[in-house]
């Protein structure tokens, strides 16, 4: 029984010692943060970013078109890591045709230059069949798949005819390359968490959320309790 109590006591004291050590070390570094320029040093590791609600980014969908990544986050469309335009509908795919890129939602085509500059949006008023499910190429010509049929057009995208084809190269989702992922992560979250901010949150316990704050409060109360009981025991011996 006494052995178990001793083990528990050792564990508790070890935890308290670690917390005190972290507070002392973080406090010392915070005092010299300006000289060490800790506010200019950033950490962007996923495990740490997740503690601040800034974990890995995940697009709703992404496509590789003409060696460029098109990704959608909510209503925002990106080309690589650059904001392009807002889409009210989900991006379903895209193709590259000579000097233009054609993206599609379920109700419209979005035309861009090869550099990613917006040209125009073509919907039902331009004769675009809908609702669109996918877009592809057949011998260089654009093809749309709708719920009712397959449609082929010319390079002007002004005439669409129903057709049945085999061997269409349909647009397919493509995962974000690491370089684009990292650039988008910086776009959304900045450089990351500064070392100074991390030390402050370690010092006050906020790095562990509400639990960390309570642990720091408990540590403070225990230090006060130990100090008072120590003085009381010393006073009894003196008496």
Task: Describe what you observe in this structure.
This protein is of the alpha+beta class. The protein has 2 domains: 13-54 and 192-238, no CATH class; 61-189, no CATH class. 38% of the residues lie in helices and 28% in strands. The chain contains 6 helices and 15 strands. The strands form 4 sheets. It has a 5-stranded antiparallel β-sheet, with no helix packed on it. It has a 4-stranded antiparallel β-sheet with strand order 2-3-4-5, with no helix packed on it. Strands 6-7-8-9 form a 4-stranded antiparallel β-sheet, with no helix packed on it. The longest helix is centred in the N-terminal third of the chain and has 30 residues, at 2-31.
Please describe the topology of this protein.
Layout lengths: L1 H30 L1 H4 L5 E2 L2 H6 L9 E5 L2 E6 L2 E4 L2 E5 L6 E5 L2 E5 L4 E5 L4 E5 L9 E7 L2 E6 L3 E4 L6 E3 L6 E2 L7 H12 L3 E2 H10 L5 H29 L1
Antiparallel strand pairs: 1-15, 2-3, 3-4, 4-5, 6-7, 7-8, 8-9, 10-11, 10-14, 11-12, 12-13
Helix pairs in contact: 1-5
